[in-house]
TrEMBL record:
Tagged with keyword Membrane: no
Full protein name: Transferase family protein
Keyword Transport: no
Source superkingdom: Eukaryota
Gene3D superfamilies for the chain: Chloramphenicol acetyltransferase-like domain (3.30.559.10)
Keyword terms, alphabetized: Transferase
Upper taxonomic lineage: Eukaryota, Fungi, Dikarya, Ascomycota, Pezizomycotina
Length: 489
């Protein structure tokens, strides 16, 4: 297929409701308008050591948006098909703010006094432990709602709020920043780029920030050709399904039954110390014949097996296991010399080669499940992945999903290659610490919640890792999850 990785040209038109208020109208790229991304609101919650000046944080972010990241101040309409990006002269703190920014100063109060359950402040165990998730931690703002909350005025973007909502909680010894927005705007890798440039604006000069790719650039341009015979709707890729007609009715009915049986959901965080990761990897490697398993393979397998042992589903229920891959690095020729400049969604779901039942997962060894993950990774090729992306983009009306109609979905997304913990905001530091980012949480929300989407968010600085997942509340009190040590209530 023809790649257009070096073509950064954008497709823009203007929306001008008043002489002094002008928007560039930028089409949202098709991969962001699939149901893999479109329904979700995402929040990144960031813990910095030390008291950071909220005014400096606000002013640097506002300046970054005006000078480098106009897209951060974009508005949406109910069509959810275009970003309405204000021209720099249109921004105004009074009438068209660049960002929704709120703060709460806790004065001389320490963060542990207000929130003693922050997990990374505990003395960490040498065993796997469970900790309160983002919804249970004070001063953290979890993802809530759906993308429609960003367009209360369906056809008038000038009346709608910016996509980016930032809340800052300051303590004598820490600052917690929560950044919320629709998933159609950016993924975790894109957020890493935004955060790094924000840090540059805080610590030195906004002009030193690198900035994102050109407005309107679509690295996947050329894919999604309906006239390509390979993209015939009947050629459904392995592991994918079309959720239309009777299949859609069945899919929704299954979801309704699940919500009726398990209406409440709860986020929790896992901590895996390095010693346990080593032990699990050694255990799994024992059944892997001449194949080296990665830490991610083993963590995925552990979480999937633990979930299967803890969920209330019958043993015959299908379990669709999925992990996302970053197309920036799988298809680098499409994303040009600086793939990280593309801040919008570039992750694509990959279902495991084989679908198992919940009962099978309960009886499979850790190594057997990890090998299924590794086999799926090994069979991936750039050409095969691009063909699947091509088909998905060509068939949006088929409502394609990387799972079957029946059963349950379980996905694990790893952010460990990202350099979140290298970021600091020392330029806004007023005391009480060193201004470093030491912990990040991710949370998602949609009309259907974000159940069974596990985010391996960051290392712990000592070779271990943190990850979070939302599950039906009852799952945490059953099976393997019930037996994991709890910390922080």
């Amino acid at each position: 297929m023809n790649s257009k990785g070096n073509d950064h040209s954008g497709s823009l038109r203007t929306y001008q409701p008043a002489p002094n208020l002008v928007f560039d109208v930028v089409p949202i790229n098709p991969i962001d308008t699939t149901n893999l991304v479109k329904p979700f609101v995402i929040t990144y919650s960031l813990y910095f050591t030390g008291y950071l000046d909220p005014v400096k944080l606000h002013d640097s972010l506002e300046l970054l948006i005006l000078r480098k990241y106009r897209i951060l101040g974009a508005r949406l309409t109910s069509a959810l098909d275009s970003f309405y990006v204000p021209r720099a002269k249109s921004f105004s703190r009074d009438t068209l703010p660049a960002v929704v920014f709120t703060s709460n100063n806790r004065g001389q109060t320490s963060v542990a006094t207000v929130n003693p359950s922050l997990p990374h402040l505990d003395t960490l165990s040498d065993r796997i432990t469970l900790h309160p998730g983002v919804n249970s931690l004070r001063a953290l703002v979890p993802a809530v709602g759906t993308p429609e909350q960003y367009c209360p005025n369906p056809n008038q973007p000038e009346l709608n709020p910016p996509m980016l909502k930032v809340h800052v909680e300051t303590f004598s010894d820490a600052t917690i920043i929560s950044v919320r927005g629709p998933h159609i705007f950016n993924d975790a890798k894109g957020f890493e780029r935004i955060l790094a440039d924000w840090a540059t604006a805080v610590n030195s000069d906004v002009e030193d920030a690198i900035g994102p790719a050109t407005l309107g650039w679509n690295p996947l341009s050329g894919l999604g050709d309906r006239h390509n015979l390979a993209n015939d709707a009947a050629n459904i890729p392995l592991g994918w399904s079309s959720i239309v007609g009777a299949a859609e009715k069945q899919f929704l009915e299954n979801f309704k039954k699940e919500m009726e049986s398990e209406p409440r959901a709860k986020y929790m965080s896992f901590h895996f110390p390095s010693s346990e990761i080593t032990r699990l990897r050694s255990e799994a490697q024992g059944v892997a014949d001449r194949v080296r398993l990665s830490e991610n393979d083993v963590i995925f397998a552990f979480l999937a097996r633990a979930w299967a042992s803890s969920c209330s589903a019958s043993p015959s229920t299908l379990a669709h296991l999925v992990f996302p891959l970053d197309l920036r690095f799988m298809l680098p020729e499409r994303y040009g010399p600086d793939p990280s400049s593309y801040i919008h969604n570039a992750v694509f779901a990959v279902p495991l080669l084989h679908t198992f039942t919940v009962g099978q997962l309960r009886t499979m060894s850790l190594g057997a499940v990890a090998m299924e993950v590794r086999k799926t990774v090994q069979q991936l090729t750039k050409e095969g992945l691009e063909r699947t992306v091509d088909w998905v983009l060509a068939n949006p009306e088929q409502n394609p999903v990387p799972r079957g109609v029946d059963g349950l979905f379980f996905g694990v997304s790893s952010w460990r290659k990202m350099k979140f913990l290298d970021i600091h905001f020392r330029g806004a530091l007023q005391g009480g610490g060193d201004g470093k980012l030491t912990r990040i949480w991710g949370s998602g929300s949609s009309a259907a919640g974000a159940r069974r989407i596990c985010m391996v968010e960051s290392d712990d600085g000592e070779g271990g890792l943190w990850c979070s997942v939302e599950l039906p509340e009852g799952d945490w009190d059953r099976g393997q999850f019930k037996d994991i040590e709890r910390r922080g209530g």
